[in-house]
Amino acid sequence: MNIKMQKISAANRKFFLEWLPFNFCDRFCERCEEFQDDCKIYQDDVNFKVKCQIEGKDSHDMKVIFEHVAETMTQTMKLVQEMIKKEGVKITKEDEKRADKFERAAAAAVVKNMLFKKCRLISRKFARFFENFSYPLCNEQVLLYLYNEMQELCFYCHLIFVKAARALHSRIEEKKDKDDFSRPDPLVSAALGYYSLLVCKRSIEVILNLIGHGAIQAKQIVKIIKLAEEAKSEFEKAFPGVTEFRDKIIFHGKV
């Protein structure tokens, strides 16, 4: 069950380092040995945890996390406003209205898309399965295998829906702005969602093999696998190039 994770080529490493902070990453920092020393996101996370330790706060407390995110967003908005002022860009009320109208139309188009619907459903199914799973009575080795697969499922199940939604929205943005970036965000986001789905599908199939088809949860797993296949098919229909994009992202899942 030891599955090797794909190594990043020298050309890709160079590309990723040129585009810090990463938009191409699954954010599984604990598994990322290649970029920890260079990644601003990782360094900020380490600094946040150290700051929490010094201040006697729990870095896993959601209130503390949201306060940190709010502080970061405030700093980011301040930098953006300074940059806009420096460049002499003026945003009128009409600009804001047009942008708001576009965002509402884009959001409406995204939620109607079948990929969005399938990924929202499968992410929820995986998350509920993880929350309600009961470990069977079995030997220590099997329990360890089950635990490892459940951790994989826990981390990646939410990325499926989040990245699918971003991919669909980015595709609309790309058409409007006529972006010509060598590694387009719609495909990058779709790839992160697609391979997260494959990770979760593989993990739940391994879990089924470990607990056996006669287990209470077996029927539920079979249904989830079917839904995962449907979501996979929708990814491939919506973004035909996604199957060739594995080496264009930083991905630490066991596929």
Outline of the structure:
With 255 residues, this protein is an all-alpha fold.
Task: Give keywords.
255 residues, mainly alpha, 0% strand
Note down, in words, how this protein is organized.
- The mean pLDDT is 87.
- Helix 4 packs across helix 6 (140-177) and helix 5 runs antiparallel to helix 8 (218-238).
- By secondary structure, the protein is mostly helical.
- 69% of the residues lie in helices and 0% in strands.
- The N and C termini lie close together (11 Å).
- It has helices spanning 10-18, 40-55, 62-87, 93-112, 114-132, 140-177, 185-211, 218-238.
- The chain has a domain at 92-255.
- The chain contains eight helices and no strands.
Number of strands: 0
Main β-sheet description: none
Radius of gyration: 21 Å
SS class: mainly alpha
Question: Strands, helices and their partners?
Answer:
Blueprint: H1 10-18, H2 40-55, H3 62-87, H4 93-112, H5 114-132, H6 140-177, H7 185-211, H8 218-238
